[in-house]
Amino acid sequence: MTRLPLVKKEIAYSMKANIETRKSGEREAYLMGFWDSLSYEQPDLTKMIFREMEEMENPTHQGFFLQGVCFVYMSLQSQLEANEFKEKWDMDGDVPF
């Protein structure tokens, strides 16, 4: 059984900085691209996420919920890619990812 990767703090810091340093319009386009990719790769998960979001009456809470889902999923995905890179290149030692 495949397990979710343990996200290292460096990945989370990198993800947060990546989103926060983008300009407003660019940030929105980046996040919309994420949702497009997620809905293509994980259609059932995307439907569940949006069903949960729609249960929230406050639009601000909906936005925070979606941003949190985005951050968690992107962090897991980035850590998985970092782990695969590390394994492919047989990297040992104190690598921050």
- Estimated helix fraction: over 70%
Main β sheet profile: none
Give the overall shape: globular
Which percent range describes the beta-strand content?
Answer: under 5%
Could you tell me the radius of gyration in angstroms?
A: 15 Å
Q: What order do the helices and strands follow?
A: HHHH
Domain count: the total is 1
Mean pLDDT value: 86
Structural class estimated from helices and strands = mainly alpha
The number of helices is: 4
Low-pLDDT runs of 5+ residues are none
N-to-C CA distance: 22 Å
Number of DSSP E strands: 0
Summary tags:
97 residues, mainly alpha, 4 helices, 0% strand
Describe this structure in words.
It is a single chain. The protein has four helices and no strands. The protein has one domain. Helices cover 74% and strands 0% of the residues. The protein has helices at residues 9-20, 24-41, 43-54, 59-88. The protein is mainly α and 97 residues long.
Concise description?
This protein has 97 residues and is mainly alpha-helical. It has 4 helices and no strands.
Summarize the helices and strands and which ones pair or pack.
Layout: H1 9-20, H2 24-41, H3 43-54, H4 59-88
